[in-house]
Design goal:
The structure is a homodimer.
Chain A (H helix, E strand, L loop, with lengths): L4 H11 L4 E2 L2 H5 L15 E3 L4 H13 L4 E4 L16 E4 L6 E5 L4 E5 L4 H10 L2 E2 L12 H7 L6 H4 L6 E7 L5 E5 L11 H5 L8 E8 L1 E2 L3 E9 L2 H13 L6 E6 H10 L10 E9 L1 H17 L4 E4 L3 H12 L1 H6 L4 E4 L9 H15 L2 E7 L4 E8 L4 H20 L18 H4 L2 H14 L13
Parallel strand pairs in A: 2-4, 3-4
Antiparallel strand pairs in A: 1-2, 5-6, 6-10, 7-11, 8-9, 8-10, 12-14, 12-15, 13-14, 13-17, 16-18, 17-18
Chain lengths: 460, 460
């Protein structure tokens, strides 16, 4: 315990007692994130309503060396928001104002606790578009998305959060409030601190506000569903389509096992007999979209699809994408523990990665199901296991390690979008040269000399 | 002098004597960049041919605290590659291999000394496109573009270098060679060191190789030229077009004085009587481009253009863009000293910035001519002066300061793409909070404890 009664009193004074949780039952809810195999209890949970409160909390925490873990909606998938060292959880959910949507300059400024979906709904009213689309967008917060550099299916055509981040108001570990970056598309004033903080998993600073770039809403969208006899052919098809110059906004893969679990949970019209499906979205001007959709249909057939069709209307298209989004929860409902991985390889190495994952599952006698962003090389193999069964869990973890090794051997990375968090920190040394890890640690010390911000994450 | 005869001997041994320059006449060429008011003599110039040589040079320089300034083609516009502290200039021009163009994964890996234009020509053969387009692209090197986070007219639609950088091989100040990032579109493995080094102006590490993302070449392009009676109406027109959902690839502004100087230097068909012109490029699928070009024509007329026309063929379009690219050199030929500035504001603030710049010029009795990337708020006002005339030069510098103040007051930044270098280091304290500048300095110390890499840049 690092938090004394006196500190609780002082925190109550900063935030007001309606913004402070200390009872064990209340704290329990903040001991998890969406990762199924980690837990850590906070000592106190705080709900700041403005940046000044964050500043005062951090100054106090720093003075007393109290760990501070920032949490948005806790939807992250690598244990990043689990307070493994106890201390304070700083929950941004009450800082949820959209400060500005500037339709002329194509920018917006939001507080950290704004839910991505709420933001998207406001943008849609003004015909604006913000592409980063983690599949938890119904709950995920903008601050969490900055901290994790979030992305999703739109990564293929539109990149991830860092490609849209222009500036931020952040609070340093010592409590200083700083404005970094600007509301301009171009800016080369000193090192790019917003981009250093983006993806740093809450270890460098607390992001209170973000300013981001927006795009005009595409005039039209079309969804194409293609059925394949095996996942490897399906993955290879994506390569062939992209190399012909067609640029879908999304290209997603789902395997048969996951298709069946999704359809059991909610019948949304996926073909349950398909060994694998690819879901594409094309977007842009009306004429371009219909032309490209026709091309994707043709190229999928050429690449071995057994059936390909365009969604007949917006409702069917929405159903397909809802199904895709349900992937992780459909998996979670079917195993006591699911290790959801996040390896990424250069796109043309996907078929080989799939082959290796298949062999890894067979060799270790564990079930590995797969979905992912086939269009950008980011796969989510999920290992079904039970952490209460040590023998099985050991085989599952061995499989994880082997999947990481396979990805690195194929010039890939161990995390495409979920981050390192707790889940992958013991693998970091395989994924980065030791000199680079030294640089990370020293940068951490520059920002957070006492190590209070999200300790225990990224490296061991 | 920090370089002894013994060190010269050791450097000769590392590089071979054909890769070492020491004579005063030879060194003189490396004492400038494209900025017209700074100079600094190196003591020795080296031309490494591989990363191992860079590593050995840095280890030696670090051991002896010798300043090292990396230089590509020296086209930068803020004094970034001028060796103001003497020491070594490390010129990357002989490391000019395109290591890989991967048309399936849409990535490429190049050595630092590859000239951007040479790279673009190779890409075109494979129908690939790399958007960052500093107007010095005929000479600028890829390493220089990483160091300066370069961009140009395509910034409007396609962003700048950092939006394409995936990974790099870099040499740290102490000589270690590190691979950072990866050949994958998504990667959240630790802090994003490649993006921290991108735009750091050679102060954090020496970039020897870069891996970047590519795009498919757009199927079609069309150029539109619009004539206006004044620069302020022209700038306002861009806002109006963008807010209607049209997304040109480029939207460039040139004022009458610059138009005349360009046409004097080489008649390329610009309308010499126009007070201001806007040059647009639309790109994408054939149908989309012709539709959008027609929309731009209509919207320009609505916004007050006196004449608007589409380029009649590729040759005319190329001529217009060549003319635009000649802007800076046309200015330089007409004044002993030209202070080429680079302020950026949110796009809808451009008309107000233009008004203020006009008043600043009148008040200080200096001539300020303007061109720039009207589409992304990045303006290049150029002050014509003569640094040998102290009284006039003082008024020019006062005008620079006032332009920076105006940009900052309008929520802008003091550099959109040229960097801070020497030119703007005394203004950094106006453009960033002191806590952020402290972070920059500490990050610099993490990477370069003895301060040998490009000392004297970014801050004073």
């Amino acid at each position: 315990m690092t938090i004394t009664k006196d500190i609780i009193k002082r925190l109550n004074k900063i935030l007001g007692d309606k913004s402070v949780l200390v009872s064990r039952t209340d704290l329990m809810s903040f001991s998890y994130d969406a990762t199924s195999n980690w837990q850590g209890m906070p000592e106190i949970v705080l709900f700041p309503t403005d940046i000044k409160q964050i500043s005062e909390v951090l100054a106090l925490a720093n003075e007393n060396s109290i760990p501070v873990t920032v949490r948005g909606a806790g939807t992250n998938l690598s244990g990043g928001s689990i307070p493994v060292s106890g201390g304070i959880v700083l929950c941004t959910s009450r800082m949820n104002r959209i400060i500005e949507i500037d339709a002329v300059n194509f920018t917006a400024t939001v507080e950290a606790g704004v839910v991505l979906n709420d933001f998207n709904m406001e943008l849609a009213k003004q015909n604006l578009f913000f592409p980063p689309d983690p599949q938890s967008y119904l709950a995920a917060t903008m601050g969490g998305c900055v901290a994790e550099n979030s992305g999703g299916p739109y990564g293929l055509k539109y990149g991830v959060f860092k490609h849209y981040l222009l500036g931020m108001k952040a609070v340093l570990a010592t409590g200083e409030i700083v404005s970094l970056g600007a509301k301009t598309i171009k800016n080369v004033t000193g090192y790019d601190l917003p981009l250093l903080i983006c993806g740093s998993e809450g270890t460098l600073a607390v992001v209170a506000q973000a300013t981001i770039k927006l795009l005009p809403m595409p005039e039209a969208r079309q969804t194409v569903l293609a059925v394949f006899n095996d996942v490897i052919t399906a993955n290879a098809a994506v390569s062939k389509i992209l190399s012909r110059g067609v640029r879908p906004a999304k290209a997603e893969l789902i395997d048969n096992w996951i298709i069946r679990r999704i359809e059991e949970a909610a019948p949304l019209g996926l073909p349950v007999d398909a060994e694998a499906i690819l879901l594409f979205e094309l977007d842009g001007a009306v004429e371009t979209v219909s032309m490209e959709a026709a091309k994707v249909v043709e190229l999928c057939f050429n690449a071995g699809a057994t059936d390909v069709r365009e969604a007949k209307d917006k409702k069917e298209a929405d159903n397909f994408w809802t199904a895709r989004r349900m992937g992780f929860s459909a998996i979670y409902g079917n195993a006591p523990t699911a290790l959801a991985e996040d390896v990424t390889v250069p796109m043309d190495k996907l078929p080989e990665l799939m082959e290796r994952i298949k062999r890894i599952g067979e060799k270790n006698d564990v079930m590995i199901v797969t979905m992912g962003h086939a269009g950008d090389g980011n796969l989510h193999p999920c290992i079904l296991t039970d952490k209460k069964n040590p023998e099985h869990y050991a085989r599952a973890q061995k499989s994880t390690q082997e999947i990481f090794d396979a990805a690195l051997e194929l010039n890939g990375v161990i995390s495409g979008e979920h981050g390192i968090g707790l889940e992958k920190r013991r693998y970091l040394k395989n994924a980065m040269p030791p000199e680079a890890i030294e640089l990370l640690k020293k940068i951490k010390t520059v920002f957070d000399p006492r190590g209070i911000l999200n300790p225990g994450k990224i490296w061991e």
